[in-house]
Amino acid sequence: MDSTDLWATRIFVATSKDFLLALHLLKLCAKKTQSESTGTKNGDMFSIWNYDGKIAYEDIIKVTEDFDIRYCIGTGGYGSVYKAQLPSGNVIALKKLHRLEAEDPTFDKCFKNEVKMLTEIRHRNIVKLHGYCLHKRCMFLVYEYLEKGSLFCVLSNDIEAVELDWTKRVDIIKAIAHAISYMHHECVPTIVHRDISSNNILLNSNLEAFVSDFGTAKLLDPDSSNQTLVVGTYGYIAPELAYTMAVTEKCDVYSFGVVVLEILMGIHPGELLTSLSSSSTQHVMLSKILDQRLPPPNPMVAQDIFFAATIAFACLRTKAKSRPTMKWVSQEFCSHRKPLANPLHTVSLWQLKNQETYMMGDSKTQS
Fold first, then answer.
1. Catalytic, out of 5, 59, 165, 195
2. What one-character DSSP code corresponds to residue 72?
3. Is residue 91 situated within a structural domain?
4. Where does a domain end: 119, 144, 169?
């Protein structure tokens, strides 16, 4: 074989190898495309964490019988929540946007915002997100299922409220404080929930608390003005939002204060909040506002209740800058440096509001 034939053979072999390699790559790409097209069939984008990866949109439709009302366990401002048992046996909670809202770009943005928040959050007292589905028919989030439902519902039920004894209530207050502190001080950028309320605190079978519903959550960019429409639940919104739309962490701090009083009182403290600025609180004792469905707390728990109430009133200060940070609140709940409490029937709300021990300095109140 002469040199010309030898080179021609080498070129043919090399070209054949390239062709086979290209053909192999094309096959791989075809498989990947086929796999991806299956995942996005009919405009469906589906992602699941912590499960076997075999859950599909059709499975959700099947186990809820196309979101039949019988599976609905709650309805909120952004959608309805359904309980569903997957083929694997796992029970999940599905938060589905109302159909008309799913077609609204504004609500689509809120849905994606909640996904973004939850995929970046990892805290033991924040509800876990297992996945989501964006489909042309509907959009929904896949949460862990928490058996006891919302704190509001438990407090509204006389039998379940008694189950929630004073020790459990103090533990719930601490758990909420730790979760909000995490969002404010450990997430970068800071996350402000903007809708802390008893409806958005969920309880598991052990009555442990988890913060939920990030549909209105906002990432606070230090370079932005943080101007937004007023959001939140009536009765929990910080007073400054009546005249300014500047959202800060201190809005969550105020809402936390309302929830703490609600836990201690067993009902929303609406009338009490309106009377805080008057002198009438001098004659209202702490023991009188506590949930009367429970027996009086023992001295040790009474000290925790006194401390929690003191923190609540600090969080409810009219001036946002005077409220403590959630980091400070969380740390105080973890410390053993608690004020010595007199018997609760001798402590007035006016005294709680004016506790010298908790006149926080700049380092404790700045954002």
1. 195
2. E
3. yes
4. 144
Evaluate whether residue 192 is within a structural domain: yes
Exposed, middle or buried, 113 (CB in 10 Å: 0-12/13-18/19+)? middle
Q: How confident is the model at residue 71, as a pLDDT?
A: 93
pLDDT tens per residue, range 241-289: 888 777 899 999 999 999 999 999 999 999 888 887 776 767 889 999 9
DSSP secondary structure, 88-138, as one string: TS-EEEEEEE-HHHHT-HHHHHHHHHHHHHHHH---TTBPPEEEEEE-SS-
Residue 171 predicted with pLDDT over 70: yes
Q: Which domain holds residue 279?
A: 149-354
| 111 and 215 housed in the same domain | no
Q: Give a yes or no: residue 38 inside a domain.
A: no
Distance (Å, whole) CA 53 – CA 104: 29
252 included as an active-site residue = no
The pLDDT score that the predictor gives to residue 225 is: 53
Numbered residues of the known binding site for ATP: 95
Question: Which residues are part of a known binding site?
Answer: 95
Q: Are residues 174 and 216 in the same domain?
A: yes
Q: Which pair of tokens denotes residue 7? A: 């080179």
Q: What is the pTM of this model?
A: 0.79
Domain boundary among 123, 144, 165: 144
CB 55 within 8 A of CB 64: no
Residue type present at position 306? F
Q: What are the φ/ψ torsions at residue 80 (nearest 5 degrees)?
A: -110, 150
